[in-house]
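Chapter summary example.
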Amino acid sequence: MASRRSACQNWRYSVRPRIFKIIEKNKLGSSQCIPRLVGEKLYQVSHIYGGEFVIDLRAKTCSCRSWNLCGILCPSAISAIFQRCENPIVYVDDCYKLETYMKAYESVIHLIPSMDQWSKCGPPPIKPPLYKQQPGRPKRVRTKEPCEVEIPAPIPPNPMPPNYIAPPTKLRRVFIEIRCRGCGQKGHNRAICDRQNNETQQVRASSTQMEQGSSSNTVRGRGISRGKA
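The structure predicted for these 229 residues follows.
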């Protein structure tokens, strides 16, 4: 914004340089127009190649609508202004003039020092939420992503069968190696553990023998002999 303000001081005219070039170009085209005064600042302009245009300098309008849309004088309007011996720049819209341009960039963006120089004010800083310990044993090892662990392809058989296609290398999906609670070894659980199964079978066999022994020693009942009547 400061550079725009300093550039305005180098303008030679009261409008922007680009707008001034457009007006100079339209001045050459105004030589092909013939204006005729109808009333106070009201003209009818005839083009030498055909066409009639109505110019109202008081309302700053033209029937070709070029002046109405962009606010820059068309060749027909410039020919009417030249007949009045006036400066065409006066009739340019105010948004292209130096005064409006300076008002748009007259404000100043105030400078801000670094954060260590800011004054501490207002409410206290926001703190993280309180930690609530969840039930269960906390995790000690981070669960790895599938892209972190890669399983190599299996070793091909020997001898190699014809048309053998080696399986591709896969990524692991399960990363927690289970451990049996019965024997303490890795790779299986208690449900499929041989030691646990053997102990379970022994317990079942001993319980079955005990039941059979207890049933043989148990007296089922005593009969009462009754005489014949």
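To summarize the output: Residues 2-104 form one domain.
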